[in-house]
Every structure is written in structure tokens, then in C-alpha cells.
Amino acid sequence: MMEPRLPGVWYASNRQTAFFLVPDGADRKAIFQKLFTGVETRRSTDGVAVENACCLTTPDGEVFHAITWQSKRLGAWRRDFAQSTQAQGIVTARFHGRRLMTSDGRRFWFRDLVVERR
């Protein structure tokens, strides 16, 4: 059974969660700061994005960190995030049911992930 407090697993009407890959040796904070800088014209005009104290390690050892945005216009944040990370080559992931789906086409079952809270 999935843990109900894991960000990105359960639906919330005013917030969404995604995950971003932090490659070995990379600075997590530096990547977080760049997540929305690759957008020419921002659509998100209200709300906030924060890094959650949660990360997922895949079976191949890659670490994805959670980011959650809260707003009345979630779609604008989602589009800005997708456009910016794609333009910068940052690998992202989201849960679809019990699977973590990455932007580069990989899929991982929830049961195969190691969940860590900081």
C-alpha cells in the first residue's frame, strides 16, 4: 500500500507535485533554482513552488527530488515546469497510478523505489 503522505501520489485540488533528477555530483539547490528559468514567458502568475523534504531513489540508483507548486492555476505551473525543464535537459518524473514515469521514457513501480524524507 502506498504511503498517503508521499507527495505526488494522492490528488489535491490546489497543488501538484513532480520530481526532478539530481545527477551524481550535481548540486540539488542549483538545479532547483533553474527549474523555471528556461521559460521565455511565464504563465504562472500566482502561487508558489517549494521543494519537498522527500526524494525517490530508483533501482538504478538515480535520485529524484520532489517539488510542489500551489496555485489557483495549476496548469500554468505545470506547463512552465515542463517547458523549462525540457529546454534545459532536466529529467523530470510524475506518478501515474503506482508508477513513476520519467520524461525520458522510463517507468518504475512504486514498490521498487526507495523513499527518503529529509
Overview of the molecule:
- This protein has 118 residues and is α+β, with helices and mostly antiparallel strands.
- It has one domain.
- 19% of the residues lie in helices and 36% in strands.
- The protein has a seven-stranded antiparallel β-sheet.
- A hairpin with a 4-residue loop joins strand 5 and strand 6.
- The longest helix has 15 residues, at 74-88.
- The mean pLDDT is 87.
Number of strands: 7
Instruction: Using the CA coordinates, give the radius of gyration.
Output: 14 Å
| Inertia-based shape | globular
What number of domains? 1
Largest sheet: 7 strands, antiparallel
Side by side, the strands of the main sheet go 6-5-4-1-3-2-7
> Helix coverage percent of residues?
10-25%
Secondary-structure element pattern, one letter each: EHEEHEEEE
Class of secondary structure makeup:
alpha+beta
N-end to C-end Cα span: 21 Å
Total of DSSP H or I helical runs spanning 4+ residues? 2
Outline of the structure:
The chain has 118 residues and is α+β, with helices and mostly antiparallel strands. It has helices at residues 28-34, 74-88; strands spanning 15-22, 48-57, 63-70, 92-96, 99-102, 107-109, 114-117. It has one domain (15-117).
